[in-house]
Design a protein that fits this description.
It contains two helices and four strands; from the N terminus they run E-H-E-E-H-E. By secondary structure, it is α+β, with helices and mostly antiparallel strands.
Length: 57
C-alpha cells in the first residue's frame, strides 16, 4: 500500500521527496503528496520525515 501523508504533521520541507527513489513524492503548496501509482513501498520517506508525517497507510 502506498505511503500516506498526515497533512496536520507535514511541514512541506521536501525531505521525503528528495529521498524517494521512485519520484513518487512532490511538494505542492507546502504539503507533500504521494502518487500511489509510482510509490513502491520502500518506506524511505517514512524513515526520513523529521515530523513523522508519512505513514504506510
Amino acid at each position: 500500500m502506498a505511503a500516506f501523508v498526515v497533512k496536520d504533521l507535514c511541514a512541506g520541507c521536501g525531505a521525503c521527496a528528495r529521498v524517494c527513489p521512485y519520484r513518487a513524492i512532490t511538494v505542492e503548496a507546502k504539503l507533500a503528496r504521494v502518487n500511489p501509482q509510482l510509490c513502491q513501498d520502500c518506506e524511505e520517506c517514512i524513515f526520513t520525515c523529521p515530523n513523522g508525517a508519512i505513514t504506510a497507510a
